[in-house]
């Protein structure tokens, strides 16, 4: 039996758009408290104030729903990374800037970060559309001979894992700004040297301010 597609129509009716927005808003609130597997669809539609059938007009299942919510947050983070890296030519500096933005987002938006971290889906896949930016930076860095050979295939996965790890740590521990900055600098040095960047350059990049 074929499931309904999760993508909305190109021009959804105002009512459909409101329903989807209400479901997404309800999902954000519920996912802050518990993972998607522990959230009945009945809870989602009750909080959204819509009929249960409306859920399946917009999402194939609960995981599709969680992925849609995570995508909204990830798009926020990617927009911030794009802004932070505007005018930065060095691909390794751009890679480091992505982790810096991720950590800052976790500090400023812990609830939205928690939702993202709980609903990642397949977003660590190299081919995932949301990874185009970081994939491009890695390809540029590798083409310039800046990274170790292993980074050609596994560098993106490695870096995304580190970004998720520091976001998770910040959300769970709620460190002070000083402690978060220190942890970020240490993660940047460890991560960049792991990619093959020499220690002196890694320390320099870790000390850059947003």
Question: Would you give an account of this structure?
Answer:
This protein is an all-alpha fold and 210 residues long. The protein is 70% helix and 0% strand. The chain contains ten helices and no strands. Helix 5 crosses helix 6 and helix 7 packs across helix 8. The longest helix is centred in the middle third of the chain and has 23 residues. The N terminus is likely disordered.
Notable features of this structure?
single chain; mainly alpha; 70% helix; elongated
Could you outline the blueprint of secondary structure elements for this entry?
Blueprint lengths: L13 H20 L7 H8 L3 H7 L3 H23 L6 H18 L1 H9 L13 H12 L7 H23 L3 H19 L3 H8 L4
Helix pairs in contact: 1-2, 1-4, 4-5, 4-6, 5-6, 5-7, 5-8, 5-9, 6-8, 7-8, 8-9, 9-10
